[in-house]
Amino acid sequence: xxxxxxxxxxxxxxxxxxxxxxxxxxxxxxxxxxxxxxxxxxxxxxxxxxxxxxxxxxxxxxxxxxxxxxxxxxxxxxxxxxxxxxxxxxxxxxxxxxxxxxxxxxxxxxxxxxxxxxxxxxxxxxxxxxxxxxxxxxxxxxxxxxxxxxxxxxxxxxxxxxxxxxxxxxxxxxxxxxxxxxxxxxxxxxxxxxxxxxxxxxxxxxxxxxxxxxxxxxxxxxxxxxxxxxxxxxxxxxxxxxxxxxxxxxxxxxxxxxxxxxxxxxxxxxxxxxxxxxxxxxxxxxxxxxxxxxxxxxxxxxxxxxxxxxxxxxxxxxxxxxxxxxxxxxxxxxxxxxxxxxxxxxxxxxxxxxxxxxxxxxxxxxxxxxxxxxxxxxxxxxxxxxxxxxxxxxxxxxxx
Length: 400
Prior knowledge:
Blueprint: H1 13-29, H2 33-42, H3 44-47, H4 60-71, H5 100-110, E1 112-114, E2 129-131, E3 134-136, E4 140-142, H6 158-172, E5 176-178, H7 186-198, E6 203-207, H8 212-225, E7 229-233, H9 254-262, E8 268-273, H10 276-285, E9 289-293, H11 306-317, E10 322-326, H12 332-340, E11 345-348, H13 350-380, E12 395-398
Parallel strand pairs: 4-11, 5-6, 6-7, 7-8, 8-9, 9-10, 10-11
Antiparallel strand pairs: 1-12, 2-3
Helix pairs in contact: 4-13, 6-7, 6-13, 7-8, 9-10, 10-11, 12-13
């Protein structure tokens, strides 16, 4: 789904022209978006079934073709998902403002090279990890993605989307995050929890940083649904303008974080940690895991890429808390790089949105299984025996 070769700006001439072309087309068609989405929504039910190629086997090309039809112009399903064509498109899939934070995620990861090693006995590496007490077949979880109406164009229902993400993760032997929306009423959250319950709770539920009372109300619903953990995406704290009337999103003090951790026996996951100092605060507050994430570059312009800040965070809190990295994971090699930088597991967002729209849970599983295959190949060719212990020197160099 991506192309790994880049010059210093993260682009080659061909991709620059491609991205410029689709960006221009998006600008021209912007006034037509609402009308097109309304018409498409009428046929969503008929077109939401997973498609298979003539031979009966689902292919990546087919998944991406259908995803492009359903997501355009919210997402153009670019060959290289680097944040250039969609810069500034929020709601949508782009990075906020100039789009620099999204591009920083992509470029900082792409600049890392792996050292190839073939003089060893690693023939069948173990890609499994344990997160929140769950053994995952690969160190990749579905990131917290949501907003099917305002971010994704409304071609899937809320329930179908959540089902695709959770079901696809289960098929691939991992778990996903279920997102809360800033503009969503409680009724929408309840519908999400109903799907979580159907899957026996093999899910991490993310709640927006609302008031303490509102978060705790939702924690009780998460407990009842049987989820394996809950979290807050603290990186949504600055998006108060998009909260519905009567709701609040806000930053949290260390004392408030500790209050949330103590309010339940569920593991507490804080997503949106982008400094070593705040990683330590999360440990002290009683969190069981942190998500090193700048919200996909969608909340604060000009933040560093996750691969840039991750080593400093790992140096400070590795072994004290589970570190989950979220930033431009597209391939198995990306996962290996983030593990080498100190992550215990990773999250994958935009590619799985495509998979869900392209073929439901089967599309999500197809992408995750592809990443797992690439990861195992990368582990063999770097002499990495287990995903639970990836050496920092697996990274050969950082290109300027």
